[in-house]
Design brief:
three-stranded mixed sheet; 25% strand
C-alpha cells in the first residue's frame, strides 16, 4: 500500500475567502495563483455560475512544507465544539514565563485580525492559549 505524501485540511465555513485570508495572516500562508487560463481569482470567479461563485478558497504554505488549507462554503453554521483543530506552534521549546510571553504576544497579534481569546492555561511551566478564528473555529496557540 503506498503511503500518503500530501494532505489538505478542510474548513467548513460561511465565507471561504474571508476565512482563508485570516489563516494566511495567522500562518504566513499565501493565496496560490489562479487556475490556468485566468489572470486573477476575480476573473476565475466571474467564469463560474452565480451559485458557485465564492463557494471555496484555498491557501498554501509558500515553503511547500505545510498542508494546503481548503475552505468550503456550507449552509449550516457552526453549532458545536470542533472535533479537530489546529495547534499554531509559536512557542516550541520555550518553558515558563518565556513560553507564556511568546504565546501572549501571538495572541495580541491575532486579536486585531478578528481572533477571539477563549482561555489561557498556564501551570508555571507549560502554557497553551485557546482561541477562535473569525467564524468561531477553535485553535490553540502552543
Amino acid at each position: 500500500m503506498p503511503s500518503i505524501k500530501q494532505f489538505q485540511v478542510t474548513f467548513d465555513c460561511a465565507e471561504p475567502e474571508r476565512v482563508a485570508r485570516f489563516w494566511c495572516e495567522v500562518l504566513g500562508y499565501v493565496v496560490p495563483p489562479p487556475p490556468e487560463g485566468f489572470a486573477s481569482w476575480d476573473a476565475y470567479q466571474r467564469s463560474l455560475p452565480p451559485e458557485e461563485r465564492g463557494s471555496w478558497f484555498a491557501c498554501i504554505d509558500p515553503s511547500g512544507v505545510g498542508p494546503r488549507l481548503y475552505f468550503q462554503r456550507v449552509p449550516e453554521g457552526k453549532v458545536v465544539k470542533n472535533r479537530v483543530h489546529l495547534d499554531v506552534r509559536v512557542a516550541t521549546g520555550l518553558v515558563g514565563e518565556e513560553r507564556l510571553a511568546a504565546l501572549e504576544a501571538e495572541r495580541a497579534r491575532l486579536a486585531p485580525l478578528g481572533a477571539v481569546h477563549v482561555q489561557t492555561q498556564y501551570d508555571g511551566h507549560d502554557a497553551c492559549i485557546t482561541m477562535q478564528d473569525i467564524e468561531g473555529n477553535e485553535f490553540c496557540l502552543d
